[in-house]
Specification:
alpha+beta; 32% helix; two-stranded antiparallel ribbon; 5-stranded antiparallel sheet; globular
Length: 174
């Protein structure tokens, strides 16, 4: 029985190393990046201070995602707020994914609105991160007011802000 212990320990260590390598590879992929952001969004609670939101969502970047979605010629485009969209081409020159992918701030008579946009879903396998692949995390005067396009469209309308957003049907929660 004793002679089997070193072998069992060796197998256990090998399994842990393999699982860690898989986990690390997953977190290094665009898919893993989205999955982690989606899980973190679910941890957010209305009323959280901006610092708490950033703590949960993180500020990491992914320099060269593994297993990226689209290949072909590198290209850029503009999103609905005229911000250059992030592309995810195959190859060593793949740009970084960021947390947040972008942000915007609006000053109104009713206070300051800050929206942090996180990459959470793949809608089209086209190599460009578009608005409908981002989840808006909406802060008002430094505190989490709500999450999602439906929430942000309604809050912007009530605040008198003119925004463009993805088609209806994208997920939202207060």
């Amino acid at each position: 029985m004793r002679s089997g212990m070193p072998r069992l320990l060796s197998l256990s260590v090998g399994l842990l190393v393999s699982l860690e390598a898989c986990s690390s590879a997953t977190l290094q992929s665009a898919s893993g990046f989205r999955d982690e952001n989606r899980a973190n969004v679910e941890r957010l609670t209305t009323g959280m201070a901006r610092a708490e939101v950033i703590d949960i969502m993180g500020t990491r970047s992914l320099p060269s995602p593994l297993g990226t979605e689209a290949g072909g010629v590198a290209r850029t485009a503009r999103d609905t707020n005229a911000v250059t969209q992030v592309q995810i081409p195959l190859g060593a020159s793949a740009p970084s994914l960021y947390n947040p992918m972008r942000s915007a701030t609006w000053e109104t008579e009713g206070g300051t609105w800050e929206v942090l946009f996180y990459y959470v879903r793949l809608v089209a396998d086209d190599g460009v991160v578009t608005d409908d692949e981002l989840e808006p995390v909406v802060l008002r005067d430094g505190y989490l007011a709500g999450v999602g396009w439906t929430f942000w469209r309604e809050a912007a309308r009530e605040a008198g802000l003119s925004i463009t957003s993805p088609p209806e049907g994208t997920r939202s929660r207060p």
